[in-house]
């Protein structure tokens, strides 16, 4: 079991791409609708990269300004990694939801990134809507067992008949099944490490974590702050909820996405 405190959840509107100014760059505003900012990496080109480079120049204390040329090359990669390290997000060198959110808010080194980033749920990750609807399902103390948690267990080959058996993987399997996606059918959290395709941290990503004590846990990625990873999952304090996992205790082993 994972004994974690649930923190208040602040909903932040998703980031949407809208036409830029005469200068040619594009801006990402907090607008409703479930749109997601573009995923940028080495090799990306265009208006989105121009906007990224503008924001990096604004939010990073660089010795010399990054050339704004719309090309995501080695220098832009180095700046992205430096920025991610400075604000305490995972240093991937890939610009996804969390990095865009920090850049757009003007988060700088030592500001802290403590505000939970969580865009509205969209068709990009329909299993998150399912998971959200299960929040509050809790283990029952004593000889009784929560029948809903037993339903989660029924999606794994273990098919446990008690809510006292670790059920984080069962919960992920069950949520995916509700939207027609086949999971691992395994009760082991580590079974997700080779499922689907590799992902960056993004809302809804299946996230496999390892605690310093050696235990594994799997849940859905919600946000990252300087000190925590925030995940929505089952078997978190004996229930389904969004919980902060301390970076001093937990390490992400992988982020996965349906293939």
Notable features of this structure?
259 residues; alpha+beta; Muramoyl-pentapeptide Carboxypeptidase, domain 1; endopeptidase fold (from Nostoc punctiforme); 2 domains; 8 strands; 17% strand; disordered N terminus
- Which topology of the largest domain does CATH recognise? endopeptidase fold (from Nostoc punctiforme)
Query: Topology as H/E string?
Result: EEHHHHHHEEEEEE
The CATH C-level class name of the largest domain: Alpha Beta
How many helices? The count is: 6
Number of strands: 8
Describe this structure in words.
With 259 residues, the chain is an alpha+beta fold. It has two domains: 15-105, Orthogonal Bundle (Muramoyl-pentapeptide Carboxypeptidase, domain 1); 126-257, endopeptidase fold (from Nostoc punctiforme). The chain is built from six helices and eight strands; from the N terminus they run ββααααααββββββ. The strands form two sheets. A six-stranded antiparallel beta sheet has the order 3-8-4-5-6-7. Strands 1-2 form a two-stranded antiparallel sheet. A hairpin with a 4-residue loop joins strand 4 (206-211) and strand 5. Helix 4 (126-133) packs across helix 6. The longest helix has 14 residues, at 74-87. The radius of gyration is 19 Å and the shape is elongated. The protein starts with 14 loop residues before the first strand and ends with a strand. Residues 1-35 and 114-122 have low confidence and may be disordered.
